[in-house]
Structure formats: C-alpha cells, structure tokens
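## retry 2 of 3
previous attempt timed out at serialization; input unchanged, resubmitting
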Amino acid sequence: MLKFCQWLGDTPWSVALHESLWAYPIVESVHVLTLCLFLGLAVMLDLRLLGVSFTRMPVSQISRRLLPFTMTGFAVMVISGSLLFYAIPVKTYLNIFFRIKVATLIMAGINAAVFHSTMEKHMSQWENDVKPPLRARWAGGLSLFFWAVIVVAGRLIAYNWWEDPSLH
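## retry succeeded, writing output
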C-alpha cells in the first residue's frame, strides 16, 4: 500500500492539489462543513434512538426526513476526504490518527448496516416508543461514540507526533 501511496503522491494532480493556494483549503473546508451537516443530522437520529430527544416523533419520520440530507453530506464528505488523502497520500497513510479514523469509520459503517438490516425491519413495532429497544439504543450510542472518535482522530491527523521527519 505504501508503494501505491508514493506513486499516487507523485502524480501531477496530487502535487497540484497539495501545492495549490486555494484548492486544498477549499476541499478541506468543504470536508469540515459537510462533516457538520452529516454529523448534526446523524446525532439527531442517534439521540432519538437513545430515547433522549424527539420522543414524540416516530423514528421512521425522523429517519425519512433526515436521511436524504445525511446521505448527501456523507457522500460529499467521502469525496472531499478522498481528495485530502489524494493530496498527501504517504504522510496521511503513515499517520496513526488516519488509521484510527479509517478503522472507526469501518466500525461505524458496520454499526449502521447492522441497524438498517435488523432493527429497521421491525421499526413499526417500536418506533413510537419513548424508549426504543435496547439494540436500537446500542446502535445510537455506538454511532455517537464512533463519530466522536472519528472527529477527534480526524482533527489529530494534523498533529502526528510520531511521524518520520524524512517525509517533509
């Protein structure tokens, strides 16, 4: 994987993106803004799954209203994040915080997939309950935890204290 990252970092578009006065900061800003959009909406659903907010609203109604915007924010966040990786692939790949972020993103995706493939099928039976079933509450709580780790690890990517000085 490191050899691929070295090749990727030497491509003209990668160098241009990384050295651009405007493009890289714009991509980074888009990434952070869409993270805010995605995360704000995901937290609303997770808090409903925990039974601590929007308790008079059916879970399916919240999900139906928020999901299109949540998925759009996630898609733009993934695209912009991929571009950020593309701009400095070797340094990013070697960064422990990037690896933590990616591993946690995978766990968050598994958590969401399990929720949508199991609990969502029977949502009509519990969606009006103030306190959803334990498995739904676990899914919401894990989601909040995973996304907190993702945000912190993402922010710490800029501060890798253990990086190889030869990368500069």
